[in-house]
Amino acid sequence: MLGIGKRDFVLFLLASAVIGITQSIDTSFFNNFLNDNYQLTISQRTFLEIPREFPGFAVVFVTGLLFAFGDVRTAAVANLLGGLGALGLAFWSPEYLPMIGWLTLYSMGQHLFMPMSNSIGMNLATDGQMGRRLGQINSVNTAVFLATSLATAFLFRFMKIDYHLALSISAGAFFLSAILILLMKPHSGKRVGKRFVLRKEYKVFYGLSILYGARKQIFITFGPWVLIKVFDQGVATFAVLSFLIAGLGIVFKPFIGYLIDSVGERFVLAGEAVSLIFICLGYAFTQGIFENLGMDKIALYTICGLFVLDQMLASVSMARATYVKKIALSPEDVSPTLSMGISIDHIVSMFVPFLGGFIWTIFGYEYVFVIGAAIAALNLFLTTKMQPFYKLPDNESAI
Fold first, then answer.
1. Which of 74-88, 194-208, 329-343 has the highest mean pLDDT?
2. Sign of the four-CA dihedral 212, 216, 218, 223
3. H/E/C letters for each residue in the chain?
4. Structural domain boundaries of the chain?
5. Mean pLDDT score, 221-241
6. Is Cell cycle a UniProt keyword of this protein (predicted)?
7. Cα angle for residues 207, 264, 378 (degrees, 5° grid)
8. Is 346 in contact with 57 (CB distance < 8 Å)?
9. So what's the pLDDT on residue 90?
């Protein structure tokens, strides 16, 4: 297995930590930025998911075009694109249509980095320690996410920093991460073999990607919108929630990595599916139950708790990545297969918001999450088709 070395590990760890700044700002500010600057209706907000998610669909083709760059250089390009997009959103998006263009560029950077990050991270690990290594990297990323969320909550509550400054900071973090990755060895993580991989042997992974795309989009689009539109919450609330997510994630992400190595991906993904069933049902029925009892605050706190739990479960995506690594017919299949998975899940996630927005408008937001519970149940069924990997190998621990 290709090793990247201690120096490159430290550089990548720092780059991943810096990306935590961009993720915190995105989580804390983005939905309120859209609501406050453009006064979007639910239809306009759901339409935005096409340009926002299209880069995820296109990522398999973009990684194919950047094939000769290798994983490391492609990751640097991704963060440069993310930084340019953040600057465009900050200063060159006075109206809805220009904003869509910069949003697409920003999103391309984010989505292009996803498969490269997992591929590079797994190349940092010894056999049997992939979950642990990804957990370590994600934990450092989360620690910075936590610190940024705390600073954001404080500054926005007491100083009212504007969106231009927040997005400028995000752009600077993207650029710094790109520089750190460019300092890694040029050959590190270089991809060889095919530009595109689509094999019947990976059909379970593709199915998981489809269901993940649908489940993810319900929470990315409609989860925050419930807090904003139904419970009238602003940036400060999202910053506090981001702080809680990050604080818990410092412990939770390494724990998920440990579970992946010890009891296997199938157990971890099945646990995620069961949790999501209850989260979706909670989103659907909490307001009606507690408001009928005159307990509006309890309803808000419950939805906030469900929001935090769902965001923490996003780290379970590590299990899909390590599953691909374990079932891959050859090492060269891993990176393009991860990219293919992202493209497949975004085919679904581009169109789920349209359906969800229609259901929200006609029937109410509750029914969006009832459908989400059904998707989670399908996901639970599909985990039974996965190959089991249980035993934690006895080899040496990675640093």
1. 74-88
2. positive
3. CCCCCHHHHHHHHHHHHHHHHHHHHHHHHHHHHHHHHHCCCHHHHHHCHHHHHHHHHHHHHHHHHCHHHHHHHHHHHHHHHHHHHHHHHHHCCCCHHHHHHHHHHHHHHHHHHHHHHHHHHHHCCCCCCHHHHHHHHHHHHHHHHHHHHHHHHHHHHHCCCCHHHHHHHHHHHHHHHHHHHHCCCCCCCCCCCCCCCCCHHHHHHHHHHHHHHHHHHHHHHHHHHHHHHHCCCCHHHHHHHHHHHHHHHHHHHHHHHHHHHHHCHHHHHHHHHHHHHHHHHHHHHHHHHHHHCCCHHHHHHHHHHHHHHHHHHHHHHHHHHHHHHHHCCCHHHHHHHHHHHHHHHHHHHCCHHHHHHHHHHHHCHHHHHHHHHHHHHHHHHHHCCCCCCCCCCCCCCCC
4. 6-383
5. 84
6. no
7. 30
8. yes
9. 92
pLDDT single digits (tens) 133-143: 787 788 788 78
Distance spanning both ends of the chain, measured CA to CA: 16
CATH entry 3.30.390.30 includes domain 6-383: no
Mean pLDDT of 229-235: 84
Average pLDDT, the chain: 84
Q: What are phi and psi of 94, to 5 degrees?
A: -70, -25
Q: Which tokens hold the place of 203?
A: 């059909």
With beta carbons less than 8 A apart as the criterion, state whether 220 and 109 touch.
no
Could you report the per-residue pLDDT of 186-219, keeping only the tens digit for each? 644 444 445 567 788 899 999 999 998 888 888 8
Contact 268, 260 (CB under 8 A): yes
* Angle, vertex CA 258, rays to CA 253 and CA 263, nearest 5: 125
Question: To which residue do tokens 């085919």 refer?
Answer: 347
What's the CA gap between 249 and 138, in Å, rounded? 9
